[in-house]
């Protein structure tokens, strides 16, 4: 049995392993905006970052604003993807419409000002802070993602920063400070179908070595 949380590692791992990539989402959320906000606040209150420098920023977008956000993403992405080929656009467009059909977005940012300041405060590790920031962001992402699914929702993680004009459109729509850099975008909502099965993983002989 664990200490203060009164759960053991197996229970925590069982909860963590429940998280899946869920693409089929409804435009509803059985968890209230207030509850999702509370979950995000809890994660922000304890998740780690290097030297506790806290470079992670989060925007919660719900209901009609989520749809409008996706409209601005689609508008910005369309010319870029079509310029690659009609096929690329035709493949991506239904995916984007699916994401728009969800209920909400949790958008994860990096505060570049914080990274700069961290490098000045901790000079010997200055070159590491961009990478540390990525690690910290991923830790926040997995915690929020897992908690939302344990709350009964489905969610999928997207990276619209792959298309630079889209990142600019998201920044403009959400009116975040200039120094924010987009890191990830978690779409969430009630699940349409059964919670997905866990995908197959490599064998431990390939991924783990114990030296003792
Ligand atoms: C760092 C990272 C980036 C990912 N980027 C995307 C993405 O851009 N779009 C997407 O649909 N899924 C993305 N995923 C989800 C993975 O495809 C998914 O986690 C993986 O296939 C395992 O499935 P599971 O999430 O159900 O365990 C990402 C996952 C991670 C950890």
From TrEMBL:
Predominant location: cytoplasm
Domain Nitroreductase: 17-189
Any Pfam family the entry gives: Nitroreductase
Domain of life: Eukaryota
GO CC, any one term: cytoplasm
Subcellular localization(s) per the UniProt record: Cytoplasm; Nucleus
InterPro entries (UniProt xref): Frm2/Hbn1 (IPR033877), Nitroreductase (IPR029479), Nitroreductase-like (IPR000415)
Keyword Nucleus: yes
GO biological process, any: cellular response to oxidative stress
GO molecular function, one term: oxidoreductase activity
Annotated keywords: Cytoplasm, Nucleus, Oxidoreductase
Family membership noted in the UniProt record: Belongs to the nitroreductase family.
Full protein name: Nitroreductase family protein
Species of origin: Pochonia chlamydosporia 170
């Amino acid at each position: 049995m664990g200490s203060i949380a009164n759960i053991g590692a197996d229970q925590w791992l069982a909860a963590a392993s429940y998280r899946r990539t869920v693409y089929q989402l409804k435009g509803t959320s059985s968890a209230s905006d207030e509850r999702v906000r509370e979950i995000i606040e809890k994660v922000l209150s304890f998740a780690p970052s290097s030297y506790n420098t806290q470079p992670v920023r989060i925007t919660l977008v719900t209901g009609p604003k989520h749809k409008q956000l996706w409209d601005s993403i689609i508008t910005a992405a369309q010319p870029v993807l079509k310029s690659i080929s009609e096929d690329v656009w035709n493949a991506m467009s239904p995916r984007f419409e699916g994401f728009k059909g969800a209920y909400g977005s949790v958008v994860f940012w990096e505060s570049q000002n914080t990274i700069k300041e961290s490098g000045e405060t901790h000079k010997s590790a200055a070159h590491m802070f961009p990478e540390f920031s990525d690690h910290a962001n991923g830790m926040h992402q997995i915690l929020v993602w897992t908690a939302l699914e344990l709350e009964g929702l489905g969610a999928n993680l997207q990276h619209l920063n792959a298309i630079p004009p889209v990142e600019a459109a998201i920044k403009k729509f959400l009116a975040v400070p200039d120094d924010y850099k987009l890191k990830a975008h978690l779409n969430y909502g009630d699940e349409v179908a059964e919670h997905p099965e866990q995908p197959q993983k490599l064998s431990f002989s390939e991924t783990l070595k114990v030296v003792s």
